[in-house]
Amino acid sequence: MRVKARATRLENELANFLWENGFAVVRGPSSGAGVSKRYQPDLVAIKQGKILVIEVKSKSKKGPLYIDSSQILNLFEFAKRANGIPIIAFKLSRKEWRFHLLDKLESTGVSFKLENPSEGLKYRDLEELIDKKHREILEFIKNT
Questions:
Q1: What is the CATH number of the domain that holds 104?
Q2: What integer best gives the mean pLDDT of the chain?
Q3: How many whole angstroms separate alpha carbon 31 and alpha carbon 99?
Q4: Long-range contacts, 136-140 (Cβ 8 Å, 24+)
Q5: Based on the structure, what is the number of domains in the chain?
Q6: In the prediction, which pLDDT does 140 show?
Q7: Whose CA is closest to 90, among 122, 118, 62, 112?
Q8: Would 25 disulfide with which of 15, 78, 90, 111, CB 3.0-4.6 Å?
Q9: What is the DSSP letter of 121?
Q10: Based on the number of CB atoms within 10 Å of its own CB, is 43 exposed (0-12), middle (13-18) or buried (19 or more)?
Q11: pLDDT digits (tens, 9 = 90+) for 78-96
Q12: Range of the structural domain that residue 72 is part of
């Protein structure tokens, strides 16, 4: 499968998955194509006021993932302007989606590296992180 076609398929797969889980999702019409003077993330997903700004990545084999520094800096800037959360969504062939916050990235100078991209947050962990469905322990202590 051509690289662009595979990337588009994965972006649509994740967009559909997030939609089915209650997010409003928009896919960047020319994400990654370099046709715009403005950075466009692969996906923007919104649920109950929480905004996820998502860059989609994939590999066919385990190992570190390298992402161009400009792409990460642009993802961060877009998320900052949108008051959103920048996320790297990663899919290893035939495995489930994993999600990474930018604090998991290591700078190599010209790029950023995710050492173990297939070991990121599972969807339920990401949802817990952004929704905080459970109260923090300090809330229990204060209310006793």
A1: 3.40.1350.10
A2: 86
A3: 19
A4: none
A5: 1
A6: 55
A7: 118
A8: 15
A9: B
A10: buried
A11: 999 999 999 999 999 888 9
A12: 3-142
Q: Could you tell me which of 112, 121, 58 has the C-alpha nearest to residue 87?
A: 121
**Enclosing H/E stretch for 90:** strand 85-92
The answer for residues whose C-beta is within 8 angstroms of residue 50's C-beta and 6 or more apart is 84, 85, 130, 131
Convert the pLDDT of each residue in 59-68 to its tens digit. Answer: 888 899 999 9
Q: Are 90 and 117 within 8 A, CB to CB?
A: yes
- Reported as a pLDDT band with limits 50, 70 and 90, residue 97 is very high
Residue with tokens 């302007």: 81
Dig out the tokens for 76 from the structure. 């961060």
Distance of CA 100 to the CA centre of its chain: 6
